[in-house]
Amino acid sequence: MPKVSILIPSYNSAHFLPISIESALSGTYQDFEIIVIDDGSSDNTQEVMQSFIKKYPHKIRYIWQENKGLAVARNTGIAQAQGEYLALLDADDKWLPCRLQEGVRILDADSSIGLVHGNITYIDINDKEIRTPKRRVQFLNGFIFENIFLRKADIACPTVLFRRTCCQEAGGFDVNLSRLGCEDRDLWLRIAPQCKIAYIDKVLSFYRLTPQSMSQNIDKMTKARLYVIDKYCPQDDQSKYSLRNRALSKIFRDRGDGFLLQKDFISACQDYQKAIGYDPFAFWPWVNFIKSLLRRNVWSR
User: Fold this and answer.
1) In the chain, where does DSSP find H-type helix?
2) How does pLDDT run across 125-139, given as a tens digit for each residue?
3) Quick check: 198 and 247 in contact, CB under 8 A?
């Protein structure tokens, strides 16, 4: 039985898929299986996979399913996984050679840790490095439900290694988010109260940004984030009133930041006002609201 099951969901990603698979195969840790879940692709994904299966018949499995979205595809892989640990690798991302070895070392050493993750470097469609985000390490270790919920902690999927038992106890990915996004953060929120999370302060993976990236769709991501907030902090639960409002404020601050970058100062002002309405004591919505207001006035002259 392999120690690690690597889950690679793929939808019309035949162009990037070989890069992704090869990055896993060339790693320094080799006790794994790869499960590629083809989510109803209409490109030549099946043809690409046949060459890999022929070359690595005992290492790689290929599963085809009707198109049902990312969360369903990942759940399909989890159901077929044989490994003690699960690793996520999307078809357009790729790993550094040390990625698995670093995570396995930590999970093997401490049974109280259920999930380990690290940093990423963003790349474009041509593999050109864009930037490496700065992580606030103080929010990324331990029992960090609130940090994940309020987005002080970002857990990057292509760096995650977690125990299959933790995933099973948490219930897998929420299929209601399959075509929206946030399905990964939602699962981390269910794992976080029951297992410690550990952060490796180094880049472990490359995360590819494409025009089709789900995280680039502001309205879709807003809908997903509102769903997650309602799931864990329903409006009628007064005990979670403050946490809910801080999370809502963060949504509209992030939207405002996006519009500010696009120089859409009117929309930015509107979203910053909503952010302030939910959390009047938050610092940055006020700062960026004033900045957007001033720039809007300058541009309107």
Assistant:
1) 17-25, 45-55, 70-80, 99-109, 145-149, 164-170, 183-191, 218-232, 241-261, 265-278, 283-299
2) 999 999 999 999 999
3) no
